[in-house]
Write a structure and sequence with these properties.
Blueprint lengths: L2 E6 L7 H14 L4 E6 L1 H4 L9 H14 L8 E4 L5 H10 L4 H5 L2 H10 L6 H15 L5 E3 L5 H18 L7 E3 L34 H9 L17 H14 L3 H5 L5 H27 L2 H30 L6
Parallel strand pairs: 1-2, 2-3, 4-5
Helix pairs in contact: 3-12, 4-7, 4-13, 7-8, 9-12, 10-12
Bound molecules: adenosine monophosphate (AMP) and tryptophan.
Length: about 325
């Protein structure tokens, strides 16, 4: 069976881009493949330096993933720091990637530039090596992610192939898979930028836990354009195309097909908002139930970590063996 792995960071609330670009596909995929999903709390340390923030966000994200439909009986859902092999393998992957390759990562360049005078950690730079460890530990065949993560999966492939040629067959070389509809959700206020937690204002971001009235308001105020024509064209009509893409992803149609049903922006905004509210209401309900039972949440995560470690520890041992590190006894 195809082994699939993807992860998400516990930084800020989960938004519609994460849901349509990632989580929803994980939920569908868990029944078709052997699915592993990590909440990558150590990745969040690249941009977090205040105490006490990452733990609660990790728990909330776990509840969100289960509420969104990941079934702990079917998929393996774990917290990265509960599986120490991630940190251990990441040193090996760091030693298998070059400074030049890491320097070309667009996410690093963007994030480092945004932080300007702020502290830019070495971890922000070596982050793709940790991500490669996340993937390679599980012998993942496929990594479903949004378009923005393609480069990180490609560097993982390069790392795997380089390691295999240096030390012999060790890692499965993973493929990136990007979903068809909803692969890229952009900011409702700034439709040329991807919907992202790091955006300046919340007005363009729809959070999974937003109240229905707040969601409708954000859609009603979505930035469009002034030519008044409903047409799917990302380049010249980014705002309208984003609304079409969201509505299409919620209703299982193609954006072009959806465009044919509208001649005005008002009804399109309203229907896109309604479709999102309908999609999110049951998820919000399950989230509140789960957050009311912390003991159960911890139990589910412990179980996920045990299942993850079973696979990860074998891969790490194989890696050490193939390098020829001296065994402790
Ligand atoms: P992040 O929020 O950056 O930790 O991303 C978690 C997952 O959501 C990754 O697979 C991303 O590719 C995906 N993702 C994040 N933002 C978007 C977006 N605006 N549209 C589509 N997918 C996204
Ligand atoms: N870097 C990814 C993001 O920001 C999160 C991530 C970490 C990830 N490790 C991963 C995604 C492994 C897929 C596979 O979205």
């Amino acid at each position: 069976m195809t082994r699939v792995l993807s992860c998400i960071q516990p930084t800020g609330g989960v938004h519609l881009g994460n849901y349509l670009g990632a989580l929803r596909n994980w939920v569908i995929g868990q029944h078709e493949c052997d699915a592993f999903h990590g909440i990558v709390d150590l990745h969040a340390l690249t941009v977090t330096d205040r105490p006490g923030l990452v733990g609660p966000s990790t728990l909330e994200l776990a509840a969100t993933l289960f509420a969104g439909g990941l079934d702990p009986e079917v998929a393996t859902v774990f917290v990265q720091s509960h599986v120490p092999e991630h940190s251990q393998l990441s040193w090996i992957t760091e030693c298998t990637v070059s400074y030049g390759e890491l320097s070309r990562m667009t996410q690093f360049k963007d994030k480092a530039a945004k932080r300007e005078a702020d502290f830019v950690s070495a971890g922000l730079f070596t982050y793709p090596a940790l991500q490669a460890a996340d993937i390679l530990l599980y012998d993942a065949d496929e990594v479903p992610v949004g378009e923005d993560q393609r480069q990180h999966v490609e560097i993982t492939r390069d790392i795997a192939m380089r390691f295999n040629s240096r030390f012999g067959e060790t890692f499965v070389v993973p493929k990136v898979v990007t979903p068809k509809a909803g692969a890229k959700v952009t900011d409702l206020q700034e439709p040329t930028a991807k919907m992202s937690k790091s955006s300046n204002s919340d007005a363009g971001i729809v959070y999974l836990l937003d109240e229905p009235a707040a969601i409708m308001k954000k859609f009603k105020r979505a930035v469009t354009d002034s030519d008044g024509e409903v047409r799917f064209d990302r380049a010249t009509k980014p705002g309208v195309s984003n609304l079409l893409e969201i509505l299409a992803a919620c209703t299982g149609r193609s954006p072009a097909e959806v465009a044919g049903s509208y001649s005005q922006y008002g009804p399109l905004k309203n229907d896109a908002g309604q479709a999102v509210v309908e999609l999110l209401t049951p998820i919000q309900h399950r989230y509140r139930e789960l957050m009311g039972d912390r003991a159960e949440l911890s139990r589910l995560l412990r179980r996920g970590a045990d299942k993850a470690r079973e696979v990860a520890s074998r891969t790490l041992q194989r890696t050490y063996d193939n390098i020829g590190l001296l065994p402790p006894n």
